[in-house]
Design a protein that fits this description.
This protein is α+β, with helices and mostly antiparallel strands and 345 residues long. It folds into 2 domains: 159 residues, no CATH class; 120 residues, 2-Layer Sandwich (60s Ribosomal Protein L30, Chain: A), CATH 3.30.1330. Helices cover 36% and strands 24% of the residues. The chain has 8 helices and 11 strands. The longest helix is centred in the N-terminal third of the chain and has 43 residues. The radius of gyration is 33 Å and the shape is elongated.
Length: 345
């Protein structure tokens, strides 16, 4: 019996010791893996998205030149132009850049273009040469690599085709998920520059270079009675974009604001008589458009009369799409044709 107890005790002691050794080995392995990950991150310049902070990027003191900073590698071209085309530069734009497999939006001045091979030397596009050439050039400017992997399909779907494809905000991403996306950041004392490219199986590539900036909005002036009076004196009419509810003759709030200015115009000029003329684009049925434009002109007239303007000074007529300002060949032009004109009579 004593031998049995002794055997059990020894067995339990050995098991306990083995568990302790396993625990220490596991902790040691975990620590070593963590150290390896940290070392890899530092050596490659890759920063995990959850830890990414632009302030952690070391500031470059290199002379980075002027936008877009990088010419294509020797014997390669941007598009098929020998020089950088101003048409490929936008003063303000947006692009989704990959940081360790995740996409983040950055806005600013952009340069988006294809990378092509000048084949006058008889040689084909070489992805390895192009990639290494950019890597060395960007590194020399103090750039830090923040992505060197493909973008998961789930991440593409999270942002969506409307942003990435239709709006061209994913210009330098590979939607076939066949090639790695190279993304770099250059941070200087006063600039933050993002560079992203992918190279397609020794065929060509795409690159985006973006200098981050805040949007500077443009002044939008209010349509005033004084402006209408000036237009009427110079041209005999004033063209207004009065907003109505879709397919209705009821005024939207900003449309009512413009009508208030028309009231002020007529009260300030008691001898002025106006024909209120409604116009539409050519979408839909012509007879319906003409009736809608007439109803909208009548709505404006009724608002003026309701606010004390003598009806004898006013006319209302609808022309539908009969008198266009421009061709109805784009949404922008159609918007110009949807208007109300004040014409002196």
């Amino acid at each position: 019996m004593k031998k049995t107890f002794l055997t059990i005790a020894i067995t339990l002691l050995v098991l306990s010791c083995n568990k302790q050794v396993d625990k220490e080995n596991a902790e040691g392995t975990s620590t070593e893996q963590s150290k390896t990950t940290d070392t890899l991150s530092k050596s490659t310049g890759t920063t995990a998205i959850q830890d990414f902070d632009i302030n952690s990027i070391e500031e470059s003191t290199a002379d980075i030149g002027v936008f877009p900073y990088l010419n294509p590698p020797e014997t390669y071209t941007y598009g098929y132009e020998k020089q950088i085309s101003p048409n490929d530069i936008r003063d303000f734009d947006k692009e989704y850049f990959a940081v360790n497999g995740k996409l983040i939006p950055v806005e600013g001045k952009s340069f988006k273009v294809n990378i092509e091979k000048d084949r006058s030397d008889g040689k084909r596009f070489n992805s390895l040469i192009v990639g290494k050439s950019y890597e060395e050039a960007i590194s020399a400017l103090g750039g830090v690599q923040v992505n060197d992997v493909t973008i998961p399909k789930s991440e593409i779907e999270r942002i969506g085709n409307k942003e990435l494809i239709e709006k061209h905000y994913g210009y330098s991403l590979d939607f076939n998920m066949l090639d790695d996306i190279k993304t770099y950041v250059i941070k200087t004392r006063d600039k933050e520059i993002w560079i992203q490219y992918y190279l397609m199986n020794d065929e060509s590539g795409r690159i985006t270079i973006l200098e981050k900036a805040n949007l500077k909005t443009l002044a939008v002036t209010k349509i005033t009675a004084n402006q209408m009076k000036t237009d009427l004196d110079l041209n005999g009419k004033s063209i207004l974009n009065i907003n109505f509810d879709t397919d209705k003759a009821s005024l939207k709030s900003d449309g009512k604001t413009i009508v208030e200015e028309i009231i002020l115009l007529l009260k300030s000029n008691p001898k002025l008589k106006l024909s209120i003329e409604g116009h539409t684009d050519n979408s839909g049925i012509a007879t319906k458009n003409k009736q809608l434009s007439s109803d909208r002109a009548s709505t404006v007239l009724k608002e003026l009369v309701k606010n004390g303007i003598d009806k004898a000074r006013l006319k209302a007529i609808g022309y539908g799409a009969e008198k266009t300002l421009v061709k109805n060949d784009s949404e922008a032009n159609k918007a110009k044709n949807r208007r109300v004109e004040l014409v002196k009579f």
